[in-house]
């Protein structure tokens, strides 16, 4: 298999966000295939597993180089390594968690981060009553110590699990400490410099999208009817 790092660098800024999202899905399926003892796969198989066409899979991967072997397909281990390198998870990222409420505690105990190359090395909170306590092996420290935490662990990524009212201020302090990548769980839009990468997870919005989908599902009787739904 051959791949071009130069091509990766040249096209990184032009790659659609949807393609990057699908890369993560490909990686999960490839890792699952590996765990099941599968050695090789194909664009057709990956597409079927995820509900995409084989052409979509090939087009997505073509943004980053040429992968696979004629008559063989993709070697799972090689493609996993390649996708990790493209995404940037071929090494471990130290992460700081800001906000240790109910959600923050759940995130500290989430093993999926570590499995995918993200290591929560520190946690900060504005509540003095939490300072010095340890959760899942991580000591909770004052948010004022963010700059020294960044230096201690070479942190470049942060997770915000603070309340909405405090999230903007927390984000600004994170950026001031030198962190430029933020995963935001607070249900607000953060306003930060353009050179800061922000990915937001608003669980209420996800539920609203699900509610919309359920509201607009065809009734079961329509699915069973050859005539389709009745329109007034």
Shape: globular
Topology, number of strands: 9
Straight-line distance between termini: 58 Å
Order of helices and strands: HHEHHEHEHHEEEHEHEEHH
- Which structural class do the helices and strands define? alpha/beta
Share of residues in strands: 15-25%
Radius of gyration equals: 22 Å
In the sheet with the most strands, the strands line up as: 5-6-4-3-7-8-9
Helix content: 40-55%
Low-confidence stretches: 1-10
**Helical region count?**
11
- Let me know the largest β-sheet: 7 strands, mixed
Describe the structure in your own words:
- The protein is globular, with a radius of gyration of 22 Å.
- Helix content is 45%, strand content 16%.
- The protein starts with a helix and ends in an 8-residue tail after the last helix.
- It has a 7-stranded mixed beta sheet, with helices on both faces. It has a two-stranded antiparallel sheet with strand order 1-2.
- The protein is an alpha/beta fold and 232 residues long.
- The model is unreliable at 1-10 (pLDDT under 50).
In terms of topology, how is this protein built?
Layout: H1 5-11, H2 17-35, E1 40-41, H3 43-50, H4 54-62, E2 74-75, H5 76-87, E3 93-98, H6 102-108, H7 112-115, E4 118-125, E5 134-135, E6 138-142, H8 146-153, E7 157-160, H9 164-176, E8 181-184, E9 197-200, H10 203-215, H11 220-224
Parallel strand pairs: 3-4, 3-7, 4-6, 7-8, 8-9
Antiparallel strand pairs: 1-2, 5-6
Helix pairs in contact: 2-5, 3-4
Give a nutshell description of this structure:
This protein has helices spanning 5-11, 17-35, 43-50, 54-62, 76-87, 102-108, 112-115, 146-153, 164-176, 203-215, 220-224; strands at residues 40-41, 74-75, 93-98, 118-125, 134-135, 138-142, 157-160, 181-184, 197-200. It is α/β, with parallel strands linked by helices and 232 residues long.
């Amino acid at each position: 298999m051959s791949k071009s790092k130069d091509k990766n660098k040249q096209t990184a800024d032009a790659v659609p966000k949807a393609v990057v999202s699908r890369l993560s899905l490909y990686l999960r399926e490839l890792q699952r295939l590996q765990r099941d003892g599968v050695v090789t796969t194909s664009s057709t198989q990956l597409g079927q597993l995820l509900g995409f066409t084989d052409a979509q899979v090939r087009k997505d991967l073509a943004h980053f180089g040429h992968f696979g072997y004629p008559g063989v397909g993709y070697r799972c281990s090689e493609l996993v390594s390649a996708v990790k390198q493209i995404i940037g998870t071929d090494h471990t990222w130290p992460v700081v968690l800001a906000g240790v409420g109910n959600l923050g505690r759940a995130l500290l105990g989430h093993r999926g981060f570590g499995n995918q190359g993200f290591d929560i090395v520190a946690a900060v909170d504005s509540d003095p009553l939490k300072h010095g306590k340890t959760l899942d092996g991580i000591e909770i420290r004052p948010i004022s110590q963010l700059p020294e935490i960044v230096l201690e662990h070479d942190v470049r990524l942060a997770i915000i699990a603070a309340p909405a009212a405090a999230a903007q201020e927390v984000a600004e302090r994170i950026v001031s400490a030198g962190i430029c990548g933020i995963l935001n769980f607070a249900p607000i839009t953060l306003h930060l410099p353009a050179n800061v990468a922000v990915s937001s997870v608003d669980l209420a919005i996800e539920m609203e999208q699900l509610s919309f989908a359920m509201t607009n599902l065809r009734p079961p009787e329509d699915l069973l009817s050859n005539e389709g739904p009745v329109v007034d």
